[in-house]
Write a structure and sequence with these properties.
single chain, mainly beta, 7-stranded mixed β-sheet, about 45% strand
Amino acid sequence: MKRKLALLIAAVMTVAMVPATAFASTKLTAVDEITVATDKIFTSRVELSKSNDQVDVTETYKYTGKNAAGDSVSDVDAFDVYVTLTNGTFAYEDDDDDKARSMEVAANMKEAKGILDVDVQSDTKAKITLNAKMFNGKHTGSETCVLPLIVKAGEVGDVVATFTSNVKAFKKASEVIATAQTGKVTIESEGVKTFVEDADDEKEIKDITIKELTPAVLAGEDIKLKLSGNWEFAEAGDVTFLNESGVKATASRVSGKDNEIVITFDETGFTPNMLTEMTISGIKLKATKKCKAGDVATITVSSNPEEGSKEFSNVKLEVAKMVKEAVTYSVEDKDLPVIWSGAYNDDENTLKVSVEENTGDILNTSRKATFTFPEGIKIAGYKFDGVSNALDAEVDDNVLTIKNYSKNEESDKTDFDVEFILNAAPTFTGDVNVVLGGQFDDVTLKVATVKAPYTITAKTSEVLIDYRYVPVNDIVITEAEEGILEEDDKIILGVEKMDFEDAGKVEVTEGDIDVDVDIDEDGPDAYLLESARNKALLTVTVKDESTEASTIVISGLELYLDRTLPVGGYALQNIGGWTEDRQENEYKPANILWENSSPIKEFYDDEEAAIFKYKAVTVNDSYVDVITSARDQDDSTTNKKIIITVGASTMAVGTETVNLDAPAYINSENYTMLPVRAISEAFGATVNWDAASRTVTVLSGQRIISMTIGSRTMYINGTPVAMNTTAAIVNDRTFIPVRDLANSLGISAINWTEASGTVTLN
């Protein structure tokens, strides 16, 4: 399934007689991931181009002159777009000279492509003239326009650029071009290095990354690294600095101090408005004799106070720890990646698990170690140290077993990282924990979380048996994110032992997805559950995918119920469909939920495929609750429960509350009297009244029950049955004793609660 890029912002669609592809989003990408200090100037490059499914821009004019990079051009097809900034302003040197402002933006566009002119019209709005051929991807040598934006950040938060145009083929697009935060630099460590108690060695700590938030804030500056705890620095001469800007620095240990290093940055290599990022590598530590298990090494990074500089606040980094264990395990300190239930994955989608041998050659053995995932998860692939299948490993569904896993013959330690490609069953949601076992200690690590790509909800409908057009409750389909259901995707719904007769009406209550809802009388051309074939199924087909997570409500649904159905609950199922493309000789899943499942045995038996055998997912196991059997059966049976309280104006009928125009009462002979019509109809019977003879007739299943006002005898199928007291009329309604009415309807479960004066019939 296609995954939508987070950088792609959906266009706002307008209703017009244009091709469907014209509604596709303009492709807008922020090239640089920038974090910048508030109120500071930065440069961010954005790329603008036509999406693959978007129509070409044809409403152009000819442009002649110099482009934004200063090159002369003639008769170039051009069109204008407008960029508006949120939480930022265009940066320039001369506040009083609008032309200088425009030229300031243009003059810094050495990396611009396809930009013909820049007209900054206000602090937050500029008109940009684009090369139409380059935007359309028709220009030789380049298929995208690149626009460097020189911006001054506003307050803490995202700085957003929004592009619009009067050209109809260009669709509105927005992108975060930077994130503003307080401070002048960010300093982070890539992790903690582990030392083992009583091991006399020195180790190189993990890299430290420094990112400027204020351009050139480190130019010519010193920073100091001060080590705390029972640790000391080894020699500082091996410290290296990696960056792409040509910035140079030197490191030296402070004379007479084993716990301080000073790093001095040259002034060269720093560029105005550009934020420099660098990685410090090669810093080595060793533990002192006082260092014990549990001790932590902390480096405080600060501006060098001895030079009188205070460019940024102190930052503390945990860089090392002392342990007793020979082997330690960890997982990346990042947000949990999201895996979609049912999606087939072909790229790493978990956090990285690190296994670190702290001393000796413990893991270089023929003994096995395992990574075990929960049921409902299958391993579709894995990667050790960035090289796929580098170790001696085998997969059995949700378990990866490895052995003989030393990095190389010369290595005296075995450290490795592993990432996984996981598939989650259509029914699995929640956190994914991996348990390290076997040669590893039993350790549990959380590496991912699984979410349902969409949810289907439907409340239980209590129904009486009928042949045709039995109404049932709404079905609601909700996307987890925009575009998760794609064009031509289908959601196929069926009810056990029943057929849909009326597809009702569909309404999109949130978002902008476009769908059709139909009833397929013969079942779709797909591999389905045996029980779903040759049935009338409800099929939801996506005509146009959403640009905003959508909610679909299907109401007015009706079912056909065969009269032979027994009392009980019947499930609503989301049925897996796999349509065969005979030309391509492949099977297309109905939607994302069914990508990693198959109804074809040879597919899910393939040990390397990581395919599940799910054919349907139950939405509600009692979507239709049949509470009375057919009237042409020998008797009337029911599983409905009725609760009625003496004197109350309502009674509980299953999950519903029903109003009474004549409440139950206790007569002078101390019998609890129930209204015949209300109780009988609640159990699915039909009640008739003959005023001339003052006789009530109840039709329930094949039972014909009759009683006459003032008589102590009722008749069931012509057989006289004595009642405890006479039938009476109160408030124009016929009443008879509880047990007489219940027995006549075939109800044997009767419960009387004295304290509350409540009768329960079930």
